[in-house]
Input
Amino acid sequence: MDSKPKYKTKQREELLEYLKTVPGKHITVNDVYEYFKQHGRTIGQTTIYRQLERMVDEGLVNKYIIDGNSPACFEFIGEHVHSKEEVCFHCKCEKCGRLIHLHCEELVEIQNHLLQRHQFVLNPMRTVFYGICDACSMKKIKITP
Amino acid sequence: MDSKPKYKTKQREELLEYLKTVPGKHITVNDVYEYFKQHGRTIGQTTIYRQLERMVDEGLVNKYIIDGNSPACFEFIGEHVHSKEEVCFHCKCEKCGRLIHLHCEELVEIQNHLLQRHQFVLNPMRTVFYGICDACSMKKIKITP
DNA sequence: TTGCGTGCAAAGGTTTTGCATGGCA
DNA sequence: TGCCATGCAAAACCTTTGCACGCAA
Output
């Protein structure tokens, strides 16, 4: 998937170390930047962008694009989710931003359908279902400010 | 959904007239802008943004956000069908970047499944399936450059 | 006449790029 | 030593906003 040699830099190590403390949590480039800034360590924004993008290619990190105007969200996956059986789907609520993890057998049928009918190999790690979660649906019924 | 009075301006009429010639097709704000420019008629980009956004509210136009960095896509729906089934799904190839449009009835089942089993209201406009398209899958078998 | 619509310019914010420097192997 | 990685500044990019003018009702 990649032919470039990979260096093990201090910035990358520190970034990974931080990411491991927030697995499954959504963070932006700015979140990372501010975190290190407030801990007396400055890492250039450009570096964060490039490293995170590299980790996405490596499958260590998921990248979610919530909205065209808001910054992209990154999520450290961790080592445990690398088996096919443990693959989970994500639902992201457009209202409250809540991320829902689905370990649903039935949703695996989507992969099969896309593959057999449309010759498309779905990547569940990268795919996010956007919509409105149950909590926000009920809120909407009550009050509309 | 909206209480403001609606004016029938020349720009809006011309924009609608153009949109009617490309129903179901994906166009960007810049596409519209360039189209009128090349036809000797200039409509301000701001106006196009505002009118298209208004038409989204009115249900005349769909707005798709494929990728955070690429411009938003707009799609004229037309008067004839306002049913939810007309909304199309998108598959984005991670290799070649190709965008595939799916008007697939079976995929609508995903919406029903998510709603009934997970109380999640799927928004097909924002949801993009990421993966590898058929062309790139075959390329991968042949050569890996 | 009223006030929404228009469009230019400028700002806003996120991401990318150029380039010189620094650091890993 | 040879590259890759870094990081600053600046550019690129899409989109929104401010404001004066125009135009529909």
Summary: Helices of chain A lie at 10-20, 29-37, 45-58, 108-118, 134-142. Strands of chain A lie at 61-64, 73-76, 89-93, 99-102, 121-122, 128-132. Chain A is about 35% helix and 15% strand. Residues 82-145 of chain A form a domain with the Dna Ligase; domain 1 fold (CATH 3.30.1490.190).
